[in-house]
Design a protein that fits this description.
By secondary structure, the chain is of the alpha+beta class. The protein is 40% helix and 15% strand. The chain is built from nine helices and eleven strands. Strands 5-8-9-10 form a four-stranded antiparallel beta sheet. A three-stranded mixed beta sheet has the order 6-7-11, with no helix packed on it. Helix 8 runs antiparallel to helix 9.
């Protein structure tokens, strides 16, 4: 549906936004103590001068690296003019007239260009000094060190628990305790793990499944339901053999074995 497509696009935008931050921190080998971002939904869900509502994934990133998210004020373009002013220069000096065969090739070329061209040029606002020399002399020491553990990008979902005690996350289904049927959970999804929360309390963890797959923990069902669902052909044959050879023969014929 159109709504589902918009949600997928938004999640992809958030992931790209997060990955760009991580790549920048890695490139500079440090983290600024305060980041002034625009009020785009990838980072800020609700703009407010005193209590902005930060996107949950972005807040996790800030907590992991220890920086403060300080969104620019609405209607105050001078809060971040120095960030946007170089964009035409980047477009004309780096992108114009170039073709890249892959994202990795473009990223490698951008890193080299940043150091040998953009970082080495003489800048009038810096008194003729190069951005790279100013960074080494005045800014590098002020950065926070990178976190010892690499950040794992996560996407948050809010699915409703279906009558079969499963939640749908990115096209796959995961079981949760049956008492939560009908409730809406907060689900944190990474490339390897699905973690379900209710009111901030952890209720279930699963390994990430591919789209269309299902991960079920029978302990999430009531005991009487679990017993019924566990009655596989193997279970039926085993119980029949306990009764006797004739019962086992009847059961095997009914099962077509």
């Amino acid at each position: 549906s159109r709504l589902s497509s918009k949600r997928r696009t938004w999640r992809m935008t958030v992931e790209a936004f997060m990955c760009a931050h991580v790549a920048a921190f890695t490139y500079f080998d440090g983290v600024p103590r305060r980041l002034v971002c625009d009020n785009l939904a990838s980072g800020v869900l609700r703009a407010d001068l005193y209590d902005p509502r930060i996107n949950r994934s972005y807040q996790e990133l800030a907590t992991h690296y220890g920086f403060l998210v300080d969104p620019a004020r609405l209607g105050h373009p001078k809060d971040k003019p120095r960030v946007e002013r170089p964009m035409p220069y980047v477009r004309d000096s780096f992108f114009r007239g170039r073709d890249f065969a892959s994202l990795a090739q473009m990223q490698a070329a951008a890193a080299a260009w940043s150091l040998t061209v953009a970082g080495a040029r003489s800048c009038r606002p810096l008194g003729g000094a190069s951005p790279h020399s100013v960074f080494l002399a005045a800014e590098q020491a002020a950065l926070l060190p990178l976190a010892a553990r690499s950040f794992e990008t996560a996407t948050w979902y809010t699915p409703k628990v279906a009558p079969d005690a499963h939640v749908m996350v990115a096209g796959a289904r995961y079981s949760v305790p049956f008492a939560l049927i009908g409730k809406r959970l907060d689900v944190r999804a990474t490339d390897s793990t699905i973690t379900c929360f209710l009111g901030g309390e952890l209720v279930k963890t699963h390994a990430r499944m591919k789209k269309g797959k299902r991960s079920t923990d029978w302990a999430d069902y009531p005991p009487e339901k679990t017993a019924f669902l566990m009655r596989t052909p193997t279970w039926c044959r085993a119980r029949a053999r306990e009764v006797g050879p004739a019962a086992a023969s009847v059961i095997e014929s009914l099962l077509g074995l």
